[in-house]
Amino acid sequence: MKPDLIIVGDSHCGALQSAALAAGLKSEMFSLSGNHWHENQIRPHKRWGMMSKNRRPVNVSISKFSETIGGSIFSDQTPVLASIGYHLGRMVPPFSRAGHTSSIEQAIDSDEAFYVSDAFVDAFLEAKRGQLFRLLKWAHKRCDLTVIAPPIVKDHAETMLFRDRITALLRDEGINVFDPFEDADLSGRELPAKLRAEDGVHGNVDYGAMVLRRLFAENGLNLAA
Amino acid sequence: MHPYISLPRTAFWRTGVAEAGLYGLSGLWKSPWTLPRDAQFATYGSCFAQHISRALKERNIGWVNGEPAPGDTPKDLAKSFNYGVFSARTANIYTAAQLRLLLQMAVGDVPVREPELWQDQAGGFRDSLRPMIEPTPFRTEEAAIVSRAAMVRGLRKSVQNSDVFVFTLGLTEGWENTKGQPYAACPGTIGGTFDPEQHVFVNYRAAAIREALDDALVLLKRLNPDIHLLLTVSPVPLTATASGQHVLVATTRSKSVLRGVAGEIAEDFAEVDYFPSYEIIAGAPTRSSFFAPNMRSVELAGVKLVMRHFFGGLNLTGPSRHDTEIAAAKKADAALEQSMAEETIVCEEAILESYNEA
Q1: Is the predicted pLDDT of residue B15 greater than 70, yes or no?
Q2: Going by DSSP bridges, is the β-strand pair B199-203/B173-177 parallel, antiparallel, or unpaired?
Q3: Mean of the pLDDT values across residues B44-67?
Q4: Range of the domain at B343
Q5: How far is B332 from chain A (nearest CA, A)?
């Protein structure tokens, strides 16, 4: 049976899925470790919606999920929420390990910083996330896709810069990105403790519910599609 | 009796060169320094210096990277932004005057903002000291300046952390502005706009090159009193000359002056030495066989022979000096890996938990 909603992506899917189920939605989730997404090897697949270039077990999981939902993850039948394309915990710490920053202000303020140009950051993101961006662009043409920007759990300057840049690059491609932290009450803040999961680095069901509420109310997520 | 009686075979052309043959040449260079077994080398200069960087890395001999690419940068991407080519992103330093200016910035004698930026017609900015350091111009003036500051910081770090500063002299010909700031290239060729009122051709003479190298040595020692300076001369001929001479004659003039100055400064300072890559590639024994058909590019076989003599002449038998910093770097890397591994576990647990509908 076709679900009301498909949630696909990394570990940040959990909060959304829990909230969707709690709200009585027939939501189906397909989640992979951020490491798999970070490999930048997931690409479009006509029948399943996506496939891994190099991970057979992942493809087995995707095909099973495809059977569960009765077709492609990305189809015009069901809206899709995606936590895909960011996976900042795998990318930013190594990037900034030696003091690299894409912020001119940070570079001026620190004697240890190495400034990295915007052109380099874009090329770096293309190398690290290009396949995922193309997957999302492809999916966007086939379904009602909303990419959900990940929660801000630590006010780390470089992480914020990468998060914002990825959001901008996706929006430049016409992809709908919903960033809960652009709303006034969360803007410029870390995820409040009451909205965090026990592990401290993911949102909890209340956070997921807040995101879904805002998506429905403010962004017109259409479950009837 | 006379002095030639007791000289070694290498002192005579017949036995040292003619009978030895190109691949039988020996004793061309022996380092006068006993370097630590974990000696660190910083490499800069004209394009031939890149071969030394690469050879050190290939042999896992300490090559200092003062301005590394961000972690996990793919090799091709790093190279296209000139990371890992030299010990900081200076790009090619063709003249001793350029080297002096860069070191003046590294010690703080010249403000990083002082050398010119070149604005292109689309509004982007290129650094007059390294106009092609990135594939596209910097978007803002400030971005170009802070990028230059990062390079200067990397240069400073590389000097402070190295035992040997290897510098390959490339050219005597260069361009300066009317205030005496050297450029990496003639304005208008790969950036900037040529203005005959503002831009001056200079064919540096031996005395000026020697003065710039003397200054550079002082600046290097201000950053690292224990540093050694190893000079080489690039055997690569000039692409073009603005001297008015035939390019072949201009090339000989340029290389001869550089070779002469390098030899003399090496004779004058115990902490300066000359490595004869120029002779190995351009000397008579090769019959120019190491040059590609364009008679300019150096073939791999020539580079390999240069490196054989280089590594054969190094003396890396002194006690280690860099154990602590190498161990600290490894520890920091391990800590980051551990932290990322822990986060991975957290995320995978979060995924599993999200399937728990109980």
Answers
A1: yes
A2: antiparallel
A3: 92
A4: 322-358
A5: 9
Q: Other C-beta atoms within 10 Å of B180: how many?
A: 10
Contact A169, A133 (CB under 8 A): yes
Nearest by CB to residue B344, choosing from A15, A33, A108, is: A33
The full set of domain ranges for chain A reads 5-89+131-219
Residues B256 and B334 reside in one and the same domain: no
Nearest-angstrom CA–CA distance, B176 and B108 = 21
Fold of the domain built from segment(s) A5-89+131-219 = Rossmann fold (3.40.50)
List pLDDT tens digits, range B296-323: 999 999 999 999 999 999 999 999 999 8
Structural domains of chain B, count: 2
Interface residue of A120, A121, A161, A199 to substitute, partner B, most B CBs within 10 Å: A120
Cβ within 8 Å of B, A 33-52: 33-35
Residue B343's pLDDT band (cuts 50, 70, 90): low
**Residues of chain A contacting B154 with CB distance shorter than 8 Å:** 114
Q: Measured between CB atoms, does B358 come within 8 Å of chain A?
A: no
- Predicted confidence band at A193 (pLDDT cuts at 50, 70, 90)? very high
Residues B192 and B329 in one domain: no
CA dist list (Å): B300 to B56, B84, B86, B307: 15, 20, 19, 10
Interface pTM, i.e. ipTM: 0.90
